[in-house]
Design goal:
It holds the Pfam family adh_short_C2. InterPro entries: NAD(P)-bd_dom_sf, Sc_DH/Rdtase_CS, SDR_fam. Keywords: NADP, Oxidoreductase. The protein is an alpha/beta fold. It is built from 8 helices and 7 strands. Strands 3-2-1-4-5-6-7 form a 7-stranded parallel beta sheet, sandwiched between helices. Helix 1 crosses helix 8, helix 3 packs parallel to helix 4 and helix 4 packs parallel to helix 5. The chain is globular.
């Protein structure tokens, strides 16, 4: 990642990102740090989180290092405690919230007939519930200041539709609805809410679990851009949506999929 667009409005902003140690989240952490924002990120993987911080420190000496807080976002008590700590440390201010985190289990990839109540709850909690409740914890501070941007993480999985991950696809479809509702609920107080819907993205996890040669060949049959999307390409859209350059953009779910399903 070399040249990036600089958004002056993001300088010194307090940015909270979930799932920031790897993949799209890590790309977003780097981009916001390079805007000279004050970045705090949550993740369950302390080893990867600390490796990211070390890499950013060595690669960008003049860029402020992000702060890492270890957190399992499915643990709502811990999630709320992290939110309160970030707010307290920044005079009650979070300017940008990126609800990026996602988790999976062996049952995530299973047909509907094999979904159990326990696996259903896990996938909903790992893909949807934490986005709703972290927004609940952070939005009041934004509304009181009549300023803020929330970016949720959706997916095109429900648009394909990806029948092999029915609960995940259901949760990600719900992100679109949640985004629209919150955009109207919070918009009266100057807070914008958007989501991004990535397609096949070459994160480490996707390369290990999904992006086989066969899957990539299937994707390229319908994707307009004949290559796999990189995490930074999704993160750049998040960065734009967080900035004042997107001051009139809210309530949308923005597809970043190389033209696989296309329209938002």
């Amino acid at each position: 990642m070399t040249d990036i667009t600089i958004y002056p409005s993001l300088r010194d902003k307090v940015v909270l990102i979930t799932g920031g140690a790897d993949g799209i989240g890590a790309a977003a952490v780097e981009l916001f740090c390079r805007q000279h924002a004050k970045v705090v990120f949550l993740d369950i993987d302390a080893e990867r989180a600390n490796a990211l911080i070390d890499r950013l420190k060595s690669s960008f000496e003049s860029v402020p290092a992000p702060q890492f807080m270890e957190c399992d976002v499915t643990d709502l008590d811990r999630l709320k405690a992290c939110a309160e700590e970030v707010l307290q440390a920044n005079d009650g201010r979070v300017d940008v919230l990126v609800n990026n985190a996602f988790g999976s289990s062996p049952k995530t990839k299973a047909p509907t007939s094999e979904v159990t109540p326990e696996s259903f709850d896990f996938d909903i909690n790992a893909s949807l519930r934490h986005q709703f409740f972290l927004t609940q914890y952070i939005a009041p501070s934004m509304r009181s200041r009549r300023s803020g941007s929330i970016v949720n993480m959706g997916s095109i999985s429900w648009r394909i539709p990806a029948t092999d991950v029915p609960v995940y696809s259901t949760a990600k479809a719900a992100v679109l609805g949640m985004t629209r509702v919150h955009a109207h609920e919070f918009g009266v107080d100057g807070v914008r809410v958007n989501s991004v819907m990535p397609g096949s993205t070459a994160t480490r996890r996707q390369r290990e679990l999904v992006l086989t040669k066969e899957y990539e060949a299937m994707t390229m049959q319908t994707q307009a851009i004949k290559r796999v999307i990189e995490p930074v390409e999704v993160a750049r859209v998040i960065l734009f949506l967080a900035s004042d350059d997107a001051s009139a953009v809210t309530g949308g779910s923005h597809v970043v999929d190389g033209g696989w399903v296309g329209d938002s």
